[in-house]
Amino acid sequence: MKAFPDAPLLGLSFSLGANVLTRYVAEEGDRCLLRSACVLACPWDMKFNGDRLNAAILGRHLWSKGMGRNMQALIKQHKDILLSNPDSPTYKVTRRVLSMRNPALNELDNVFTAVIGGTSPPFPFEDAASYYTWASSHKCLDKIRIPFLTINASDDPVVKQVPEECSNGLVVLGLTQGGGHLGWFQSDDSFDVRWTTKPLLEWLRMSGDYLLGDHERMKSSLYVADDGFLRDAKNPRLGCKVLEVKENSLIDGNAGQQQVFRGQFL
């Protein structure tokens, strides 16, 4: 942002992150600073798709338990911070998570995410099902006010139900015959290359280079505050800060790296 302060902001996200980006764009509406966005393999109706996933033997024992173990491992990596205050709700639910054996994602969300996954209100929720219903993005497409491309696969083992139509002319719903969950690999010798990269780049390039938007609304309002956090003047409660990142280093959210990236909500 320092080097190119007037560059258009474009959004791209995958899977659960796609659900978050969809909710963000919809909730911001006319205030959204992004010029355009793309989401892949969004879970949309998290309650319905979560129930379908756990109803299948393979879905529950491969996908749901796999995601649950990953989440539990992430919590273990940060247990010293999460257990630093014995009087906090975080301490209690973290102890419960650490004692769980091979939890499915919905079991872990029921104990942890639904309780301390965000600020109050709306957290805490009664259970994971209530949290999934609230967090779903399939009912907010009509609130999106920027060009928005979605791509899902009809054979996705995680996302069984996707929006089939949308009255919002800014939203393009793409459904491929195959692709699994974030698969979409090419059928030629480049078996490790996803063909979706090309249309995504075309969409983002079109949005960034040729699309005319509300430049005053999309004009960057980011600044570096005295505490070193990058903030948005239009919403100063939100901020982020990069810490001790070496040049050309890879930030792997599953590798347990510490003091790399910290978000803040005041």
Helix content: 25-40%
What's the pLDDT, averaged over the residues? 85
Q: What best-fitting shape do the alpha-carbon axes yield?
A: globular
Annotation, overall tally of beta strands: 8
What is the makeup of the main sheet? 4 strands, parallel
Poorly predicted tracts of residues: 248-266
Q: Give the class from helix and strand content and strand pairing.
A: alpha/beta
Strand content: 15-25%
The topology string of helices and strands comes to EHEHHHHHHEEHHEEEE
Rounded Rg: 20 Å
Span of the ends, CA to CA? 23 Å
Number of helices: 9
Which features would summarize this protein structure in a list?
single chain; AB_hydrolase_fold; disordered C terminus; alpha/beta; four-stranded antiparallel sheet; four-stranded parallel sheet; 266 residues
Molecular structure report:
This protein is of the alpha/beta class and 266 residues long. 36% of the residues lie in helices and 17% in strands. The chain has a four-stranded parallel β-sheet with strand order 1-2-3-4, with helices on both faces. A four-stranded antiparallel β-sheet has the order 5-6-7-8, with no helix packed on it. Strand 1, helix 1 and strand 2 (34-40) form a beta-alpha-beta unit. The radius of gyration is 20 Å and the shape is globular. The two termini are 23 Å apart. One of its GO terms (biological process) is medium-chain fatty acid catabolic process. This is AB hydrolase-1 domain-containing protein. One of its GO terms (molecular function) is acetylesterase activity. Belongs to the AB hydrolase superfamily. AB hydrolase 4 family.
